[in-house]
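On clarity, I found the account of how folds are encoded harder to follow than it need be. Since the whole study asks how a given chain folds, the encoding of that fold should be made plain. For the editor and my fellow referees, an illustration may be useful. An entry of this sort, consisting of the sequence and the corresponding backbone structure tokens, reads as follows:

:::
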Amino acid sequence: AQMFQTEKFDLVGEVAAGIANEVRNPLTSLQGLLQLIENKLPNEDDNRTYIKVMMEEIQQLNVIISEFLLMSRPVVPIRRETDLHDILDEILTHKNADLVQKNISLTKNYCSNLPIVLLDMEQIKHVFLNIISNALCAMPDNGKLVINTDVKNNAGSMTVTITDTGCGMDPQTMDRIFEPFFTTWGNSIGLGLTVSKRIIHNHGGKIEVDSQTGRGSTFKVILPLNN
């Protein structure tokens, strides 16, 4: 029975990979064509706004494809030396326009002696991009985003804590946020946190969540130092 289950998952993974390639290829072509059109438009042309929206939608589709692939086949971390602060800063730079647009204040309390550890950089980036993106979506204008990092040598772990002042979650929602395809956002298929939890678990870590309706949420990612 176990062998049959494994073969079934392998088949699902192969089919998912094939579908993903078939979808991604035209998306890449479409993205390239939009870039060519944008380059030929005058800077003041209003059509640039529509092209920007289309490019963002293509990017969102690529994220969905990546999450679907991560769900449908084993997530084996390819570890290399990684500085978590560099990953967080890269994501925050990528999200800077959203921070500015919503006038979100950002506070970074980075641990000065956070060690370099062996992690799958792309997978871990996916986790924190998902958590930070969710935090920004949950917050109204003039919200606050706080990111803390810490190392606990006696416990052999380090933590990244991300706190927002968004809408928060009721207990029923908190019980389901890691379920596949569960979402409270209209533009999401509900795989982001499912995949994130799986990635962290495969790194030997865990994700903890604390939230209250109307008061915001805190996500704590705990990763082992020796992996």
